[in-house]
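note to self — DONT lose this again. spent like an hour looking for the file last time. sequence + predicted structure for the chain T wanted, 232 res
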Amino acid sequence: MKKTARVWIGTLALAATLASGAASAAEAQWQPVDKGEARTDISTFERGVDGSDVKAFRGVTEVQAPIVSVMAVMADASACEQWLYQCKAMELRDNHRAYFRFKGIWPAKDRDALVQTKVTQDKSSKAVTLASHAVEGEPEHEDVVRVAALRDQFVLTPLDDGWTRIEFQTFIDPGGNVTGIANTISKNAPKETLQGLRKLATAAPYKDATLDDAMVRYDSVKEMDLPQSHQR
């Protein structure tokens, strides 16, 4: 083998090792909270966020439902209270933004946020990522406090048997002097959100949902390449 070829292969190997190490380091930042054993159990994790007393939380599980069923639940504004933790109401503003109102835990008032979501797909794994964050543009509402920060991410990975792996990450700073309450909310959010999402995605009418149902909120899904077992 020529020297230049050996150098090139060695460089690729080093790059792969560094990339793997970086991914492992990022993963190591998450500290386990609850470890699920069965396929449908929910494993949860937490980690600190620079500049905030509020932690970020993450939950992972698998659901016996195709991606379109999961996205159809998330797209249905009327279903918000049934699956999204502490959601009191959701109003769609367009295909990218939705207004949320969250129930306050006494003595905190209700919170609200205008949330913008970007949907992307990994070409290799076909995983769909729905990344959301709070944005400006919503008028102030009476008797409710605007959240200081909100970042959510759902990663929906299609599995060969028609199941979907769901990873949910969330960070919400409700604002005000309610750090303890905020961490309680954030800790409970992954487990209860994923439990609710699984329950609805596997029940009528969502278990028979089509791409059109998901497109109510996520119009870019029509351009995605999903396995046949994950679309109708």
